Amino acid sequence: MSSPLIELIGATKRFPSGSGSVHTAVRDLNLTVEPGEFAAVVGPTGCGKSTTLSLVSGLQPASAGQVRVNGEPVTSIPDGVGYMFQNDAVMPWRSVLDNVASGPRFRGMSKSEARRQAADWVGRVGLAGFEKYYLHQLSGGMRKRVALAQTLVTEPRIMLMDEPFSALDVQTRALMQDELLRLWSGSDAAVVFVTHDLEEAIALADKVVVLTSSPATVKDVFTIGLPRPRQVEELRLTEDFLRIYREVWESLRGEVEKARTKGTTDVA
Ligand SMILES: Nc1ncnc2c1ncn2[C@@H]1O[C@H](COP(=O)(O)OP(=O)(O)OP(=O)(O)O)[C@@H](O)[C@H]1O
C-alpha cells in the first residue's frame, strides 16, 4: 500500500524557553493527509497549530517522531509545497502580474512563460484586467486573490494554509472560501488549513482535526461528509452542518476551556 502524501507519526516539537527550560509545543502528534484531501486543523489559541504546519513545511525540524511527505522524511522544504498565511507574501513594489509570476521565476522559469502562467492564474482568481495594478490599489479581498494566485500558480501538491482569510470581513471571507474550494476542486492537492474558526473548518474540509490545548496532540478527527460542490454561506444554514458543528464543538470546547483555565484568553 502506498504511504499517505503527508504523514506525521508521533511528531513532537520542543522549543528552548527561558532559563534553560524546554517548552513542548507539539507532542506525539499523528496525522495523515491524502492527495486531494482537505484537512482543517482547529484547536485553542496557542496550542501548536502553526507549529504543526511548520513541521510539514520543513521550516522546523521535529524534535522526535517522524514527519514524511510522499513517503520521504522531511529534512528541508519539500518540493511541491505552496503556502498561504494570514499576512500575504505579496510585494508592494511589484504589479499583480509580477507578484504572481515571481514564484515560477524563482523556480527558474523564463520570464515570458512565467508571465503567461501568471496571467492565466490572475484570470482564474477573478482579477483579469488588474494585471498592472499595484497592491495599494486593491481591496483586502483582491489582495487575497493575488495571494491565492501566487500559491496556485506553482500547482502545489500540498497547500499549507495558516488562517489565510482571518483578516477579511465576513462577506469577503465567504467569497474567498468559495473561491478556494472552486480552485482546489480542479486539482489533486492535499490541503492542511489551520483556522480558529470552526465554521470555516467544517465548511471547507473533508476532515476536521481537533487538537488538544498545549501541547498539541490530536484529540479527535471528524470526517465531514457534506456533499461537494459547496457554497459556504448556504451550507452553514443546513441541519447537517449544524449537527456536525455541535458534534465537533463538543470535542473542541473542553480544550478551549482547559486553555482558558491555563490563562489563555482568546477562544478557538
Ligand atoms: N520558534 C519558536 N520558538 C519558541 N517557541 C515557539 C516558537 N514557535 C512557537 N512557539 C511556541 O509554541 C507554542 C505553540 O505556538 P503556535 O504558534 O504553534 O500555536 P498556534 O496554535 O498556531 O497559535 P495561535 O492560535 O495563536 O495561532 C506557543 O507557546 C509558542 O509560543
Describe this structure in words.
Helix content is about 35%, strand content about 25%. With about 270 residues, the chain is an alpha/beta fold. It has two domains: about 1-80 and about 155-165 and about 175-260, 3-Layer(aba) Sandwich (Rossmann fold), CATH 3.40.50.300; about 85-155, no CATH class. The strands form two sheets. It has a six-stranded mixed sheet with strand order 6-7-8-3-9-10, sandwiched between helices. Strands 2-1-4-5 form a four-stranded antiparallel sheet, covered by helices on one side. Helix 4 packs parallel to helix 5 (about 170-185). The longest helix is centred in the C-terminal third of the chain and has 23 residues, at about 240-260. The two termini are about 35 Å apart. The model is unreliable at about 265-268 (pLDDT under 50). This is ATP-binding cassette domain-containing protein. InterPro entries: AAA+_ATPase, ABC_transporter-like_ATP-bd, ABC_transporter-like_CS, ABC_transporter_ATP-bind, P-loop_NTPase. It comes from Amycolatopsis pithecellobii.
